[in-house]
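Fresh eyes needed here. I'd like your take on this protein's tokenised backbone:
***
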Amino acid sequence: MGKNITNDKMRISFDLDEVLFVSPSIHKTEPAPIFPLDRIFKERLRLGAPGLINALQDLGYEVWVYTSSFRSERYIRTLFGLYGVHFDGVVNGQRHLDEVQKGHRETLPQKVPTHYGITLHIDDEEVICSYGREYGFDAYRLDVPDEDWKEKILERAFEAKRKKRNELSAKKSDS
């Protein structure tokens, strides 16, 4: 079902709502953009998200957004650009419908990261994370405030990269 993507970089995706965009009444957040941009971009970023995304990219990972929301790619890229973050790819609800769901009679999950060569997906929804086994991706559930969330995601990224390397080694030795 997924595209045959041959890319040496490992891809990680983040959901937006309740993962990167959080409520300041529940989570610590990055400072809001300056006026008048704070009126256009009302979402608040989880404290540390820009640093984590940039650190993952510095470590050689591609970082994507995979959201079921219908915010435009331009909106997402512009908002994160204000924080010095540049995503390697963005999949919103419309792109998912056009590229993943299109042509399938059965309703697919809201997110199928493997379609885009994504190995690890970070989400707050248990149901999305539970599809990992069926659709061939690792998932990390980030659903409650956690001071160590960045370290846990980095460890999960390293773990997923080791697993992917081992799978590729096994395939090469079978050939």
In short: Residues 70 and 166 are 36 Å apart (CA to CA). Residues 149-174 form the longest helix (26 residues). The chain has one domain: 11-174.
